[in-house]
Design brief:
It is built from 12 helices and no strands. The protein is mainly α.
Length: 252
């Protein structure tokens, strides 16, 4: 009661003097737990944008071979001395896998922009780690269209199963009533016949080789030299020292 009266006097009575009141302790607007939560969510978003996980809802990244290979490479690199030969090899392989995924995403983005979604393309292609099949509106139709894109176009340019992340994107396009237009545009821009030519220019990444490299732990010596010679098809040529700085800036 007394504290409330003094606050009233301080606000409405100019004759009252409340200098004796102690200043109220300022409390942070957000608790440390809330800040940690936001930091964790931001890290998840950066992780998705950087690695473009094929199965975005799998926190272990172990359900698909391609996700498991990339995740194991990242984990192995995190335990490898920065700047070492093994670290550089891992960085090149990680960069190669990410480039393949970014290439697929760029094809989708170009078709969306071609359909008039220039401003919305980025948001339509963003899939968070919280993506859930239960929230999909047209899951069966989206899966059928995903299979059509994989089997009748070269938009994925891979014989591996198509990434599940694009199932959620197709569900959004179905809601916007443009999914069929997207598939038709993909057939024209990326016909199936172009796949063989693309594979000759950019050989597919050998997942079994990358997994064996991770399992062997890059122990060095002759085994590393053999793996380096055998993995020529899965590396990006012309990577300079300046590129290594860029390659190392991921999930540190």
């Amino acid at each position: 009661m007394g504290a409330a009266f003094r606050r009233f006097c301080a606000q409405f009575c100019c004759c009252c003097c409340c200098d004796d009141d102690e200043p109220e302790e300022k409390r942070p607007l957000l608790s440390s737990e809330t800040l940690q939560y936001f930091a964790s969510e931001a890290k998840k978003r950066r992780d998705q944008e950087t690695n473009l996980w094929s199965e975005p809802g799998d926190p272990s990244h172990s359900e698909r071979d391609d996700d498991r290979a990339l995740y194991n490479l990242l984990q192995t690199r995190a335990k490898t001395r920065r700047g070492s030969q093994g670290y550089r090899r891992l960085s090149v392989d990680i960069h190669a896998m990410r480039e393949v995924r970014r290439g697929v995403r760029e094809r989708w983005k170009m078709i969306l922009e071609n359909l008039g979604f220039t401003a919305e393309a980025e948001s339509l292609l963003t899939v968070s780690a919280s993506a859930s099949y239960d929230r999909m509106r047209n899951a069966p139709t989206a899966r059928r269209l995903l299979h059509t894109l994989h089997s009748e176009t070269s938009i994925f340019n891979s014989r591996e199963p198509p990434p599940e992340r694009y199932l959620f994107i197709l569900d959004r396009l179905l809601y916007l009533d443009v999914a069929e237009d997207f598939v038709a545009k993909a057939r024209r821009l990326y016909p199936k016949g172009d796949e063989d030519e693309d594979e000759e220019e950019a050989p597919a990444i050998n997942l079994s080789l990358l997994l064996s490299r991770v399992n062997q732990g890059l122990s060095g010596g002759e085994e590393d030299d053999d793996l380096e010679n055998a993995s020529g098809s899965s590396r990006v040529s012309g990577v300079s020292d300046d590129d290594d700085v860029f390659l190392e800036k991921s999930l540190d």
